[in-house]
Amino acid sequence: MRPICFTGMGHVLPRRMLDNDELPPLDKPITEAQLQRIGVYRRGWAGEGESIPELAAAAALQALDDAGVGGADIDFLIVANWTQRRLLPDFAPRVQQLIGAPQAFAFDVATACAGFVTALGIAEGYLQNPRFRRGIIVGAETTSRVARPHSKATLVFGDAAGAWVVERGEHGHQVLAWELSTDGRYHDAMEINAEGHCVTHIDQKELQQVAVHSFRSASGAVLDRAGFTLDDVDWIVPHSGTAGIQALLLRTLGITEDRVLTNFRSIGNVSSAAIPTALHAFWSDGTIRPGDLVLSPTTGSGWYAGAALYRMGGA
Known about the structure:
alpha+beta; Peroxisomal Thiolase, Chain A, domain 1; 31% helix; 9 helices
């Protein structure tokens, strides 16, 4: 297998960022203790001109600039998204147009919150073929639109997009391994109902246990494949999920909170955009440094599990 890397990163948040006291009132008021357990204090709600293509394109253009290449240098474009799915056409061709990548083969994927790692796995397959040298993968979500108005879900869900430029070679941030799996026993755990809202069909405790099992199994598989252990990992940058899932993840993996980097509290659950958004933020502020080994586990309704392991490059 030819090695692959990502050479550019980008992420965007909506213009409108809402603190808890700026949200529309809930059906049932909640206490400060409940707010602390939910764990989100600010999130972005996309407005006019901030639909999936616009958010995805803005993140992709940042990643292109970071990589020092232009849209004309891109051979394929994969947009991970499930919160504004449509049958025809995909969003990716519009993103292709917006970033000026006329020769890029562009398409969407949807594996819920595991979408970005799914896109990474597909991208590696393309990059093994000499016809493809460079691509962009994007996670772009407007989860605020699938939350039932005035429900507690409005406290958790936020909107964002994150992108990587991916290439063959070893001159960027090196992708060491990735893992993807599906557990159809829980295919109906969650769904979008006729009103367009996300609903859960299993209780919260069972949902958390399924999610944490997915995190653990995918993380173990990807570390085994690359020949590392959890002790070798400098940082865990996970899909944000919920505060409860994050707490269970720490206990299950036996890791301390200071090894986990997430901006869940300040942007909410942004689904497939969570990993690239957090990674870019913590890389940009210097928390993550060249040479660091980073593990990114994710899970998504379907039921999907995924993880990516990568070594940060750069001087």
